């Protein structure tokens, strides 16, 4: 796992954790962590040659990123390229949050730290990634989608310009945002128990869904897969609370789509607008973060402005409403309600079960005659002991 397993460490009574292998460098919640990435071989000469082929202009503003297993060789690569490229910037791997505030133009994200001195900031810079194609590179490309990316794979020794159509990926993610707007029941998947702030973002998502008039269920299912999530048919959409790398789950094979906390906030919080910057770290959504957006004042359900879904074409309320589940009916007179309506107001899951034609085995208490226990069949289904076998 790329995340530190603090739960297993606490079961063993550990006071610190040594994490071996690749890591997403998400801050841990309690225990101090020492990361041991390992050192994969890197041909710095071939990497520098690929860099010169990709960036023939010596005045190019380029930020060099690397996988953690190649961080040990970045110093040697910097010595070869810095004399030729005066505007090149090498990122530094930071395993823990720095206490001092960031300087103007300094970027601290995903365990990387670098200072951008380009006139237009990060938008005027290109990104050069040293490492194989994977979740880390995808996370970087979605977050810094305004920057052109190139990469060098040390295993093959080839450099290339990344041809992944980020806009197409963003269109897919924005389509999931529209699906989240249509959803009535949302399942919150707890994908991490060790990243700092996961409890706060769970509470934030519950509050956000309550204000948006949606039901939410919190589920701890470990690593999500289509078979697990297919058991919750009453859930319209899932939101995965995980680290920045694992939150971008490809849910094309899932029965219900899976979105990130940022996508759910885009769908439920009308005060947050799409600016082109994609956030994969859920801590950026919490109060006190630079990207936090407060919820607007609540609007009564009668005054909510309707909107048309771009997927189903049906009407829906887009403004925040006072908690619909706790609202009292406008009249205090007694009224007769059927069981289905009562279940629908209590729980969408119960109303979903009520609408199904088969709800499981019925007990039929008092209707089945009492009889003594008898011995059943023995053997396997293809040939029970009391059945004859045909000779072929």
UniProtKB/TrEMBL annotation:
Any GO molecular function: iron-sulfur cluster binding
Highest taxon of source: Eukaryota
Co-factor requirement: [4Fe-4S] cluster
Pfam families for the chain: Diphthamide_syn
Gene3D superfamilies: Diphthamide synthesis DPH1/DPH2 domain 1 (3.40.50.11840), Diphthamide synthesis DPH1/DPH2 domain 3 (3.40.50.11860)
Alphabetical keyword list: Iron, Iron-sulfur, Membrane, Metal-binding, Transmembrane, Transmembrane helix
Listed transmembrane segments: 185-205
Pathway: Protein modification; peptidyl-diphthamide biosynthesis
Coiled coil location: none
Example GO BP: protein histidyl modification to diphthamide
Known function: Required for the first step of diphthamide biosynthesis, a post-translational modification of histidine which occurs in elongation factor 2. DPH1 and DPH2 transfer a 3-amino-3-carboxypropyl (ACP) group from S-adenosyl-L-methionine (SAM) to a histidine residue, the reaction is assisted by a reduction system comprising DPH3 and a NADH-dependent reductase. Facilitates the reduction of the catalytic iron-sulfur cluster found in the DPH1 subunit.
Family: Belongs to the DPH1/DPH2 family. DPH2 subfamily.
Name used for this protein in its record: 2-(3-amino-3-carboxypropyl)histidine synthase subunit 2
Native species: Geococcyx californianus (Greater roadrunner)
């Amino acid at each position: 796992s790329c995340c530190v397993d603090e739960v297993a460490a606490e079961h063993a009574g550990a006071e610190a954790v040594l994490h071996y292998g690749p890591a997403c460098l998400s801050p841990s919640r309690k225990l101090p962590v020492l990361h041991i990435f390992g050192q994969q071989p890197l041909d710095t000469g071939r990497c520098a040659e690929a860099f010169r082929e990709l960036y023939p202009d010596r005045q190019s503003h380029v930020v060099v990123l690397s996988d953690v297993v190649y961080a040990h060789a970045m110093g040697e690569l910097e010595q070869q390229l810095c004399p030729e490229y005066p505007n090149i910037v090498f990122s530094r791997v930071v395993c823990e949050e720095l206490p001092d505030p960031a300087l103007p133009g300094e970027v601290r994200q995903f365990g990387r730290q670098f200072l951008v001195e380009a006139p237009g900031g990060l938008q005027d810079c290109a990104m050069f990634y040293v490492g194989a194609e994977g979740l880390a590179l995808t996370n970087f490309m979605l977050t810094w989608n305004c920057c052109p990316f190139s990469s060098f794979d040390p295993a093959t020794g080839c450099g290339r310009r990344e041809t992944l159509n980020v806009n197409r990926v963003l269109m897919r993610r924005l389509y999931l945002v529209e699906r989240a707007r249509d959803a009535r029941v949302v399942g919150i998947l707890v994908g991490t128990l060790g990243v700092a702030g996961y409890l706060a973002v769970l509470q934030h998502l519950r509050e956000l869904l309550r204000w948006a008039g949606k039901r939410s269920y919190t589920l701890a299912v470990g690593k999500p897969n289509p078979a697990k999530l297919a058991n919750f048919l009453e859930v319209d959409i899932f939101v995965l609370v995980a680290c920045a790398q694992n939150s971008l789950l490809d849910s094309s094979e899932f029965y219900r789509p899976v979105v990130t906390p940022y996508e759910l906030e885009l769908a439920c919080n009308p005060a947050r607008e799409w600016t082109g910057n994609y956030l994969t770290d859920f801590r950026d959504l919490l109060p006190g973060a630079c990207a936090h957006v407060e919820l607007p004042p609540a609007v009564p359900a009668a005054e909510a402005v309707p909107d048309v879904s771009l997927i189903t074409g049906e009407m829906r309320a887009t403004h925040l409403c006072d908690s619909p589940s706790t609202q009292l009916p406008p009249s205090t007179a007694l009224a007769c309600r059927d069981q289905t309506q009562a279940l629908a107001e209590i729980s969408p899951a119960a109303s979903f079960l009520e609408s199904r034609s088969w709800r499981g085995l019925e007990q039929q208490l008092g209707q089945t005659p009492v009889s003594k226990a008898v011995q059943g069949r023995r053997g396997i289904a293809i040939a029970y002991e009391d059945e004859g076998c045909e000779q072929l």
